[in-house]
Amino acid sequence: MSQHDFDIDNATAAAARVDINLALKALGSLSSGTTAPATTYANMLWYETDTNWLRVRNEANSAWIRFAYLDQSTNQIALVDNTRVVNTSGAQVGLLGDQSTATWQAGTGTLDSLASPANIKAAILALAPTPQNLLGVSQTWSVVARTSGTSYRNTTGRPIQINVNGANSGGGYIEVSTNNSTWVRIWTGSGAANTWGAAIIPDDHYYKVGSNDEVAILS
User: Fold this and answer.
1) Which among 15, 68, 91, 123 could disulfide-bond with 104, CB atoms 3.0 to 4.6 Å apart, if both were Cys?
2) Residue 153 and residue 178: Cα distance in Å, rounded?
3) Domain containing 72: what range?
4) Do 143 and 210 lie in a common domain?
5) 3-state class of 86 per DSSP?
6) Is 28 helix (H, G, I), strand (E, B) or coil?
7) Under DSSP, is residue 115 helix (H, G, I), strand (E, B) or coil?
8) 0.70 cut: is pTM over it?
């Protein structure tokens, strides 16, 4: 521990010399010690030896600002988590810290930041469809009866695919809708053999076919 009030007492030459040397040692060691110096000054440095934190006194001389961590085992310096990165005007432009998974999922933050692999993975998984909801995963084909011109709704909670045999008649078709009101025709049968129309029906969307064509569904 090497601390001093940096006020040289009025004393004999020998005593003053000792006091000056103690002050210089404290200054050279950054007032190191396990407790803060009893006498503090604005912008003063203090190295807290039991925690390895280098601190600087604020300009109001009312609190210590944790500045850097000095790793004595590796002889390396480290910055405290969530240290702000600022431009020359003092405006924050980044963050030396790992922001929450929710922040990465929202994707609305504008601060540059460190990102852990775990948080990036969690954000991707949260935003991407789960494998079991992908088209074709754990789904099977089946032939179903569908009445010509009747609206059917996909209520499976995942996309399905319908295939329609257009060989039965030239009037076959596939129409799709998001609201069961406005329809889009995406395929019209030709009546030729081995002619099939196909469509992917997203969850909660509607579809209908024409002319009682044979329908196969992947669901």
Assistant:
1) 123
2) 10
3) 1-80
4) yes
5) strand
6) helix
7) coil
8) no
